[in-house]
Design goal:
The chain is built from 15 helices and nine strands. Helix 5 crosses helix 12 and helix 6 runs antiparallel to helix 7. Helix content is 43%, strand content 11%. It is globular. The chain has a seven-stranded mixed sheet with strand order 5-2-1-6-7-9-8, sandwiched between helices. By secondary structure, the chain is α/β, with parallel strands linked by helices.
């Protein structure tokens, strides 16, 4: 991030904010404007966490931020929780109006989506994103929205962060793009992130670059949010899963229900998660975990009610289901991506776990782009 204006940085102390929230600002009233494109079934939590820090910042005596909610057709959008949100305009009309006024180089567009990110995205929408990028518009995408940006071809050369559940599918569909394990990544004119509550830290980081840490800390106090010890853009971190085929470590927390696991079990799980694409023999996992096969089996049955072999197989199948549901990857490629050399073996195991064939999951998850009008 490089939008630092030393003359505009906030003073070290603030008066107590206005007790009443200021009116919503228009772009010509505010110092900075954020356009937000809401995709049907978007995450309401992500939207609120994106906007609330900006709203609260406006309470400290200056008209700093405005935002406009947009949709592809200009109509209200229904979030994943069923709530309909009115918007301020149609995406193409608002952005093109900015071009005519010479504002495109200062534009900021954040795409917010969640479930079925491509179900309502047409070729005209993708072409619009490409034109915006060509005009120097700053583009962002939260939760599953990086899929939309990537399909528009506007993430080439930029690192990407997105919701952990969609990482495997994203890696399979866009192996040329670098995926980081950070909650958000901000480089140049692109910002991508996992969405949800992490959007608060992301927006506080933006406030820091514009006005310094004092205002960001004051906003954090108002919304009862503690900022990380090292505030700012999340630094690149090494993805423990190691490239394509890696899994999220949240599997451990989900299966263990937040119980403390024996160190040997944690080591074994880490080895399994790091080797989903090339399944290791159980004796090799035991050796790397520092336990005998008998010990590891006893501990897995005790903790999970399953043998190490069963757990490992289920982890690979769960990974396959995420990829099939969230990407356009062929079933045969998914089977290879989770360590199966025989498609028939993969299909039998998948059907046994999920009660349907892999192709059924793929058809249900894959939604073709909506046809262009006209």
């Amino acid at each position: 991030m490089s939008e630092v204006d030393s003359d505009a940085r906030w003073p070290d102390s603030h008066p107590y904010p206005r007790p009443d929230s200021p009116p919503l600002l228009s772009p010509d009233q505010a110092e900075h404007t954020l356009d937000v494109w809401l995709v049907p079934k978007f995450s309401m939590l992500t939207l609120f966490c994106l906007l609330e820090p900006l709203r609260v910042a406006n309470r400290f005596g200056r008209d700093l931020f405005a935002w406009r909610l947009l949709s592809a057709d200009g109509e209200a959008v229904t979030a994943s929780n069923g709530v309909r949100i009115d918007v301020d305009g149609r995406l193409s009309e608002v952005t093109e109006a900015d071009w005519y006024q010479g504002l495109s180089s200062k534009g900021r567009l954040m795409v917010v989506s969640s479930y079925e990110p491509e179900a309502c995205i047409g070729t005209e929408d993708l072409a619009l994103l490409k034109r915006l990028a060509a005009h120097g518009v700053w583009l962002g995408g939260l939760d599953t929205a990086p899929f939309i940006l990537a399909r528009a071809g506007v993430l080439e050369g930029y690192p990407v962060a997105l919701h952990w559940e969609s990482v495997p599918a994203f890696r399979e569909e866009f192996p040329e793009l670098e995926v980081r394990a950070d909650s958000y990544v901000w480089e140049g004119g692109r910002l991508t992130g996992s969405g949800g509550a992490a959007s608060i830290d992301m927006m506080l980081a933006w406030i820091v670059t514009l006005y310094g840490p004092s205002l960001a800390e004051a906003v954090g106090r108002q919304i009862v949010h503690s900022r990380p010890a090292e505030a700012g853009v999340a630094a690149p971190t090494q993805d423990a899963a190691g490239g394509r085929g890696g899994a999220s470590t949240t599997w451990v927390a989900d299966r263990a229900s937040h119980r403390a696991l024996p160190r040997g079990v944690l080591r074994a799980l880490a080895v399994m998660e790091a080797n989903l694409a090339q399944a290791l023999p159980i004796p090799d996992i035991c050796r790397l975990a520092g336990l005998s096969q008998r010990q590891l089996t006893r501990l897995f049955v005790q903790e999970f009610g399953e043998t190490p072999k069963q757990c490992y197989l289920n982890m690979r199948l769960d990974q396959a289901q995420r990829i099939l549901a969230d990407s356009r990857t062929a079933v045969t490629e998914v089977a290879v991506a989770v360590g199966f050399s025989h498609l028939a073996h993969f299909s039998r195991a998948y059907r046994k776990r999920f009660g349907e064939s892999p192709s059924v999951t793929a058809r249900r998850g894959l939604r073709p782009p909506a046809p262009a009008e006209g």
